[in-house]
Design a protein that fits this description.
- This protein is 45% helix and 4% strand.
- With 487 residues, it is mainly alpha-helical.
- Strands 3-6-7 form a 3-stranded antiparallel sheet. Strands 1-2 form a two-stranded antiparallel ribbon.
- Strand 6 and strand 7 form a beta hairpin.
- The two termini are 38 Å apart.
- The structure holds (2R)-3-hydroxy-2-(alpha-D-mannopyranosyloxy)propanoic acid.
């Protein structure tokens, strides 16, 4: 990674924040891949690398392109790009290669070890963002290098994971959604709880399992999923392994099968980007794939009910009526009819999702809500990036700025790159020195409307009685250009 020259237009205090972000990325740099954090996540994760590339492009576009291309190293012969490609480090990760034993079934493109599941398909988004920073020749070369693998990945999702041609892609593990312990997923996973966990739960002694877990050595257990949930997720891995990671076998087991709303929304957007990438590289997409893309976009409508979007159970066809931030991601996909937009914006900025900071991963009035616990309440920077991007494309510039300003306030109040933040008091939680927080901060700081975002952040900080963003008061209403807000 290059040194990342300073950005001349940035106030000096934001330069410091930027320097911290760069330091985090440099510290997590493993060569041409970046790990999410130094201790808890020592390998390469699919969607993490994509968000990381979106930030890195502002510092070193060639390195960002390498980060995206490196995901192809893990590609399976069936087209799947795995959720984790294991680095050759001493394995202290709690769900390392020995839990998956995938090398018994497949050889990845590079021979690297991997998990047997995938993750939200952010690759095309990252590719387009990185492509914007490359000169035309380098961009076309990059797209051409990426396209064959990327097309096969999208084909895998639309065929292997949509075997009944319903339009929506089905996930086989909550880790595929990226939102590991989000309530609808944990509900769907309940039937496969191992017997010993059920017994311990019944006896009220499930914390006896705490001593057996590795992840809680890095981060306080109360900021992670419960041991009962974790051991249930390990059980799902065992079933997947026994099914040789083939959907045809998996569907015959008790493994939860979910048409995840956020994943499918990200796929719809990724498909749009794939069309753009292929057009620029002069590559024709297979007809069957373009048909699947269209059907996926149309099928998103089946996930809408009354006031939000939900995930759906693949086996029963029933919506999993448990609200989460995932229900807003169709905004990112661009599939929401105009008459629903203001209602969704109102909901995401209401005290349920924005008690003090937003947008929370689970509404604050949900019985499962825990402000500092992983995907059960905290604010995640990557999800807010996706939501702001969607809002902007719908012309809701003011709302997009609110989200970005809130993220800026959250990060700058501690000056550190946490994995997630409490929506109640803004404190950081989970792993520290977390790569996608750092990378998406770099992306935010490079935005041309940064002065406007700073002004919104300053107003929010005044309202909340907090210190707010360093340098924010330099961008007052007076010195900013006439706002062209449509939102
Ligand atoms: C978290 O998930 C991993 C399993 O994939 C874990 O807890 O060990 C999630 O937040 C996921 O979305 C993220 O990609 C990963 C690495 O940051 O960590």
């Amino acid at each position: 990674m290059s040194t990342g020259t300073s950005v001349p237009t940035l106030p000096s205090d934001l330069q410091d924040l930027r320097a911290t972000a760069l330091e985090v990325l440099r510290g997590n740099d493993l060569g041409d891949v970046t790990r999410p954090s130094p201790t808890l996540y020592p390998h390469q994760w699919l969607w993490d690398s994509c968000f990381i590339a979106i930030g890195l492009r502002h510092v070193d576009p060639a390195r960002a392109a390498a980060e995206v291309l490196s995901l192809l190293r893990g590609q399976w012969p069936n087209g799947m790009i795995p959720h984790v490609i294991f680095a050759e480090v001493d394995d202290f990760y709690h769900a390392g290669p020995q839990r998956w034993r995938c090398d018994r079934y497949v050889v990845t493109a590079s021979g690297a070890q991997s998990t047997g599941i995938t993750q939200p398909p952010m690759i095309a988004e990252a590719a387009v963002r990185v492509g914007e920073m490359l000169d035309p020749k380098a961009r076309i070369d990059f797209y051409r290098a990426l396209l064959p693998g990327l097309i096969r990945f999208h084909e895998f999702l639309h065929t292997e994971r949509d075997p009944d041609d319903e339009g929506l892609v089905t996930l086989v593990h909550s880790w595929e959604s990226g939102m590991d312990n989000t309530p609808p997923w944990m509900e769907a996973t309940l039937p496969i709880t191992p017997r010993r966990v059920k017994v311990l739960r019944r006896l009220g002694t499930a914390e006896a399992l705490d001593a057996l877990r590795r992840d809680a050595k890095e981060v306080p257990a109360e900021e992670r999923l419960t041991s009962a949930d974790l051991f249930t997720l390990y059980r799902v891995v065992r079933e997947l392994r026994r099914s040789c990671y083939s959907f045809r076998n998996i569907r015959e087991t008790e493994v939860p099968l979910v048409q995840d709303v956020a994943f499918n929304a990200i796929l719809v957007r990724a498909n749009d980007h794939l069309v753009e990438i292929a057009a620029e590289a002069g590559v024709k997409l297979p007809k069957r794939l373009t048909r699947s893309m269209r059907r996926c976009r149309e099928a998103m409508e089946q996930l809408w009910s009354q006031s939000t979007y939900f995930s759906r159970d693949f086996r029963t066809g029933e919506l999993l009526r448990h609200e989460t931030v995932g229900g807003f991601l169709p905004l990112y996909a661009g599939v929401v009819p105009e008459e629903r937009i203001d209602g969704l914006v109102k909901a995401m900025t209401s005290p349920r999702y924005w008690p003090r900071y937003g947008v929370a991963s689970v509404p604050a009035d949900d019985p499962a809500f825990l402000p500092r616990c992983y995907w059960q309440g905290p604010v995640w920077v990557n999800i807010n990036w996706l939501l702001a991007d969607g809002l902007e494309r719908y012309g809701r510039l003011e709302a997009a700025r609110e989200l970005r300003a809130n993220v800026l306030n959250l990060i700058s109040s501690s000056g550190q790159m946490f994995e997630y933040y409490s929506p109640l008091d803004g404190t950081g939680a989970g792993s520290n020195s977390f790569s996608w927080t750092a990378a998406l901060l770099l992306d935010l700081l490079a935005r041309p409307d940064l002065p406007e975002i700073q002004a919104v952040a300053a107003r929010a900080a005044d309202r909340l009685g907090t210190t707010g963003v360093p340098g924010a008061r330099r961008a007052t209403d007076e010195d900013r250009p006439a706002a062209a807000d449509a939102g």
